Amino acid sequence: MRKTPGPALFPRLRRARALHRAAAGAALLGAMTAGLGQAAALACAPGSPAQQYQLGVEAQSAADHAAVLAHWRAAAQGGDVRAQESLGLVLMAGPALPGLSPDDRCEAWRWSRAAADQGSAVGRHQWELLGRLQRSAGLPPCP
C-alpha cells in the first residue's frame, strides 16, 4: 500500500510544482514569442490575470495577506473569474482577516457580481448571499 506524504512535505511539493509551472510558463512564453509574435506572448506575460491569480494563491500559502489582495485585485480587474470569486469570498469574511475593514463587504459584493456576470455559479451564490445578509442586517446598499 502506498503511503501519502506527511504534512511537512506538502509545502515542499507545492513549491516544486510552482517552480515547475514557472519554468514551463517561461518556456511557453519563449516559444510563443518566437513563433506567434508579441500579442500572443503578452497573453501569458507575468502580469497577465492568470499569472496574477496564481501569484495570489502562492502568497496565500505563505500567509502574505496584503500580497494576496494585491495580486487577486489585479487579476480580477483583468477579468479573471477565479480571482473575482476568491476576492468575493475573502472580502466577505471582512475583519476576520488581517488588514481588512468592515467596508470591504461592498468590494466583496462588486467582485462577486462581476464573477456572476461572467456566468460563475460561485459568484452568483456569493452575490445573492451578500445581498441577503445586507438586507437582513439593515445595511445600506452598496453602490
Automatic annotation (TrEMBL):
Entries under SUPFAM superfamilies matching the protein: HCP-like (SSF81901)
Membrane-spanning segments: none
Keywords linked to the UniProt accession: Signal
Signal peptide: 1-39
Record keyword Signal present: yes
Domain of life: Bacteria
Record carries keyword Signal: yes
Full protein name: Sel1 repeat family protein
